[in-house]
Amino acid sequence: MTVSIEHIRAAAQRIAGAVERTPCLHSRTLSRLTGAEVWLKFENLQFTASFKERGALNKLLVLGEAGRRRGVIAMSAGNHAQGVAYHAARLGTRAVIVMPRGTPNNKVRSTQVHGAEVILEGDTLAEAARHAHSLEAHQGLTFIHPYDDPAVVAGQGTVALEMLEQAPGLDVLVVPVGGGGLIAGMAVAAKTLKPDIEVIGVESANWCAMHQRLNGLPVKVGGDTIAEGMAVRDVGELTLNFVKKLVNEILVVNEETIERAVVCLIEIEKTVAEGAGAAGLAALLEHSARFAGRRVGIPICGGNIDARLLSEVLMRGLVRDGRLVRLRVVMPDIAGNLARVAAMIGAAGGNIVEVQHQRVFGTASAKSPEVEFVVETRDREHTQALVDALRAQGVTALSAS
Fold first, then answer.
1. 20 to 30 A Cα–Cα from 166, which one of 99, 276, 298, 383?
2. Contact (Cβ atoms closer than 8 angstroms) between residue 84 and residue 76
């Protein structure tokens, strides 16, 4: 099995008009922040908010009418599921999707909305895959693998085809890695069109199976990650071969950096990315020296993030940047004291978000309760100035964040 630039160009013609030719734009602010010249490919603007539509549709079209009449089945943690479900429904094909039980609710719901039959089975993608193959055999369905399939890889390669047409001066592509379908397809296209370009993969520290395979290490992955789309234990054998031949390096990033990248994309680019979708930017934030002065292209490969998780990531970002802090204040239990301290915080430019009045636990004296204020500030310097202003007026205050 192989994938060539001809396969990718054929895929581009096949899927044209049914998937978005997403913008690839230069980010001046992220370029200043990272020290690289950053170009972003907004695959989160696809109809299902992910690049996965490209490979899914290409595979469906390659099957032909007879193959599509039998129906298709896929296993996926979310984005591949939505891509298969949406385009299968559009083409009048039955689609069954097996998803791990821990798949975020928004991805389950979105897949069902597109008309697929969703089955939650197994705790991992590997377990979901086993169940999907069992249904494939019993029901005569055609299995559409999320990454280890030449037609899928060719479809994903159209991302690089477009990027190098839109930003031909790119020196480096930084690509998130799960099972390897996206980076394999993009590497084939990029290295054929521009042999001196670097292709760099990115994995989460908790789920870095491709990095481990390339370095001859036993695969040991697991644990929580914000980047569910990259939480893959069994990378594709087809994709692994392409990565070995064409990819320059696989970088590993920490969970906190992925969170930072999600926040940066919202605050700077005003675009929503899921954890896997922000991983390319995370690599620039964590390994900035590796890319300094280079023209770097990053696919924002998905935007399907649970609303509750996104809100937590944004709030954690405020805490991390020192813009949301806890102030612990010990004050005499005298009428009007709470209002007086609150007025001081307001006068110093702090916005009080929450107040907890503690009279029993952790107090030095029953007559001097501790009050915890959660306060929004501009930055760490502003927080320190606020604390100094309180102390200057005789208030015992301690920043706890």
1. 276
2. yes
| Superfamily of the domain at 322-399 | ACT domain (3.30.70.260)
Nearest to 27 by CA among 305, 275, 288, 281: 281
Q: Mean pLDDT per 10-residue run, the chain (401 residues)?
A: 94 97 98 97 97 98 91 89 94 93 80 90 84 91 94 98 98 97 98 98 96 94 90 92 97 97 97 97 97 97 92 92 87 80 90 82 65 90 89 81 60
The confidence score (pLDDT) of residue 351 equals 94
Distance CA 401, CA 399 (A): 6
- Taking CA atoms, 217 is separated from 162, 180, 213, in Å, by 35, 17, 6
Nearest alpha-carbon partner for 252 in 181, 183, 186, 176: 176
Q: 5-50+152-316 and 52-143: same fold?
A: yes
DSSP secondary structure string for all residues of 58-85:
HHHHHHHHHHHHT-EEEE-SSHHHHHHH
Class of CATH domain 52-143: alpha beta
By the 8 A CB rule, do 151 and 179 touch? Answer: no
- DSSP-derived 3-state class of residue 118: strand
Q: Which of 226, 232, 228, 229 is nearest to 309 (CA)?
A: 226
Domain 5-50+152-316 has CATH 3.30.420.40: no
The SS3 call for residue 178 is coil
Query: Strand 396-399 relative to strand 324-330: parallel, antiparallel, unpaired?
Result: antiparallel
Give every strand in the sheet of 324-330, ordered side by side: 351-358, 370-376, 324-330, 396-399
Q: What amino acid is encoded at 47 in this protein?
A: F
> Residue written as tokens 């296993």?
75
Burial class from Cβ neighbours inside 10 Å (0-12, 13-18, 19+) for residue 106 reads middle
Going from N- to C-terminal start, the domains of the chain cover: 5-50+152-316, 52-143, 322-399
Distance (Å, whole) CA 348 – CA 391: 12
